[in-house]
Specification:
CATH superfamily of the largest domain: Aminohydrolase, N-terminal nucleophile (Ntn) domain
CATH class of the largest domain: Alpha Beta
Number of strands: 27
Strand order of the largest sheet: 3-2-4-1-10-9-11-15
Mean pLDDT: 95
Helix content: 25-40%
Low-confidence stretches: none
Bound molecules: fructose -6-phosphate
Radius of gyration: 26 Å
Number of helices: 20
């Protein structure tokens, strides 16, 4: 959670920082702030509750000059969203300002120590103790800022990506990270900090991805200096190129990132399959699988762990691996897995799925399984993220940056990677017949086109959505591969429209949720035409008998469910195991348009943040 930005160079910092905050706002948007050392040597901190736009308004009549600065957009953990809890935080003497993304776990111990030393605190945050501790170390040991940050961090337990500046030296910006994302951009005589590459890409492609426990001194006119908290000697910076373009992070004519990302799915799937799906030969080549096939071969089971939408993709992964590879799979929400003292065998393969690659619970689950000797396979979107670094092997989804808080293209690319992985493993382990393999791979080659066909029905879906804005509850039903899709549809709806929704296995409905059904209740049934069609038809009839209002996702040419449903949305025919890639698209559009009709902010729904880096 939280986004951090920093700048030191020759330009005015404020516009760069504000633009950077807008690009990182998906990470948190309950308050925002900026600190700058102005031309007269004042350290000015401006911060306010609300979104970045509020901060811009607030700063209109302020002195925003300065060529060094730091800025922050917050998602509250310690202390409610308020002006005083917003970052940057000042030290007691107001000589130092600091921004922080993460959690200082031992902040209470440090706080008591500092209170004894006479320090007074202005906020309820864990972050403020760090800036006070830095000042204490600086004064007590007569150290310059960089050394003081270094020493202070040796006493800190927790996760952090920080930026620190000081009043008396506008030529210095100090940064450091442990377990929270941080990128340092290196331009011509200027430097940038960002929680991801989006605030940096407009100015330079040259970046450093600091490792955990590294502390970095950025000094005007000098090379940057990196040291690890574990070893004092200097570390040579490894400069990499950002693989991101400005188009990737702008709305490109769409009113919201979410809609842009829904429409990007044919392209993101194409990028995801590029170089892996050999369209002519009808083959899948995944190096992560090829190089580690022995691990899959000896696995008595696969564990899949993830959170939220990625967990739903994982549930589809279970159906894929069990059907195609005949390997038993357990799928678990990472926050439960990590604290359950789970049984993990050395022969287990643990697949961790994460769009951001920074989800704290997923990372902790991976660490736990790794310690117990499991082989860790990652499926992740953000290149170089913590998940990517913690894995033994894996496959990037290459969906491109996902900025809308509600996950859409990340989900379909995750399902696509899971399908490719299961197919590749099945082929290597001979658990699939050649003709079945070729048929499914051929279908995978057509999937982008089929998604484009569904996207052409957007107006139809928008019209249906408008009818249901009155609803206070929705039920989503699906079976087999499409049961997790029902859960995903429900999650999309609740997170952006704030309508309560539940996703259920269709046959389970009669064991409880059926009591909710009346003439007011919309029930979305994911019912493409496969072996279970007649079973789900019976479930639809059960709903109809209780006067529920049915919106059904059906295969083109459907007859029977159409007769029962109030509204149907047709999708093209495909292989059952790939059907979630199609059935989820109308559900994404449905939730988007219900939320729009209700006037919600779909890109920044209340209380949510894009990457959940706290547990
Ligand atoms: C829902 C959503 C979240 C994320 C979850 C995991 O639309 O986006 O449920 O899926 O927070 O995030 P990642 O995939 O980044 O680990």
């Amino acid at each position: 959670m939280c986004g951090i930005v920093g700048y030191l160079g020759t330009k005015e910092a404020f516009p760069i920082l504000i633009k950077g905050l807008h690009r990182l706002e998906y990470r948190g948007y309950d308050s925002a702030g900026v600190a700058l050392v102005d031309k007269n040597g004042n350290l000015n901190v401006y911060k306010t509750k609300g979104k970045v736009a509020n901060l811009e308004d607030y700063c209109r009549d302020k002195d925003i000059s300065g060529t060094v600065g730091i800025a922050h957009t917050r998602w509250a953990t310690h202390g409610e969203p308020s002006d005083k809890n917003a970052h940057p935080h000042f030290s007691q003497s107001k000589h130092i300002a600091l921004i922080h993304n993460g959690i200082i776990e031992n902040y209470l111990t440090i706080k008591s120590f500092l209170i004894e030393k006479g320090y007074k605190f202005q906020s309820e945050t864990d972050t403020e103790v760090l800036v006070q501790l830095i000042e204490y170390v600086m004064q007590e040991h007569k150290l310059p800022l960089y050394e003081a940050v270094y020493q202070a961090l040796t006493q800190v337990i927790g996760a952090y990506a920080i930026g620190v500046i000081e009043k008396d030296n506008p030529n210095i910006l100090v940064t450091a990270r442990t377990a929270s994302p941080l990128i340092v951009g290196i331009g011509d005589g200027e430097f940038f900090l960002g929680s991801d590459a989006s605030p940096i890409v407009e100015y330079t492609k040259n970046v450093i991805y600091p490792e955990d426990r590294q502390v970095i001194k950025i000094e005007r006119g000098k090379e940057i200096e990196i040291r690890s908290l574990d070893k004092e000697e200097l570390i040579k910076p490894e400069i990499k190129q950002i693989q991101l373009s400005l188009d990737d992070i702008e709305k490109g004519g769409f009113p919201h990132f979410m809609l842009k990302e829904i429409f990007e799915q044919p392209k993101s799937l194409s990028l995801c399959m590029n170089g892996r799906l050999q369209r002519e030969q009808k083959e899948i080549i995944l190096s992560g699988v090829r190089e580690n096939i022995d691990k899959f071969a000896k696995a008595k089971r696969i564990l899949i762990t993830a959170c939220g939408t990625s967990w739903h993709a994982g549930l589809i992964g279970k159906y894929l691996f069990e059907t195609l590879c005949r390997i038993p799979v357990e799928v678990e929400v990472a926050s439960e897995f990590r604290y359950r003292n789970p049984v993990v065998f050395k022969e287990d393969v643990l697949i961790a799925i994460s769009q951001s690659g920074e989800t704290a619970d997923t990372l902790a689950a991976m660490e736990l399984a790794k310690k117990q000797g499991a082989f860790i396979y990652g499926i992740c979107n953000v290149v170089g993220s913590s998940v990517a670094r913690l894995t033994d092997s894996g496959t990037y989804t290459h969906a491109g940056p996902e900025i809308g808080v509600a996950s859409t293209k990340a989900f379909t690319t995750q399902v696509c990677v899971l399908a490719m992985t299961a197919l590749a493993v099945a082929k290597e382990l001979h658990t699939i017949k050649e003709e079945d393999y070729k048929r499914i791979v051929t279908e995978l080659c057509n999937i982008e086109e089929k998604i484009s066909t569904i996207l052409k029905k957007t107006k139809e879906i928008e019209d249906i959505s408008k009818i249901f804005t009155y609803a206070r509850n929705f039920l989503y039903l699906g079976r087999g591969f499409n049961y997790p899709v029902a859960m995903e549809g429900a999650l999309k709806l609740k997170e952006i429209s704030y309508i309560h929704a539940e996703g259920y296995p269709a046959a389970e409905m009669k064991h409880g949720p059926i009591a909710l059904i009346d003439e007011e209740m919309p029930i979305v049934v994911v019912a493409p035409h496969y072996d279970m069609y007649n079973k789900i038809l019976s479930n639809v009839q059960e709903v109809k008998a209780r006067k529920g209002r049915i919106i059904a996702i059906v295969t083109e040419g459907d007859v029977d469910i159409k007769k029962q449903a109030d509204y149907t949305i047709e999708i093209p025919q495909t292989e059952e195991c790939l059907s979630p890639l199609l059935t989820v698209i109308p559900l994404q559009l449905l939730s988007y348009y219900v939320a729009i009709a209700k006037g919600r902010n779909v890109d920044q729904p209340r209380n949510l943040a894009k990457s959940v880096t706290v547990e």
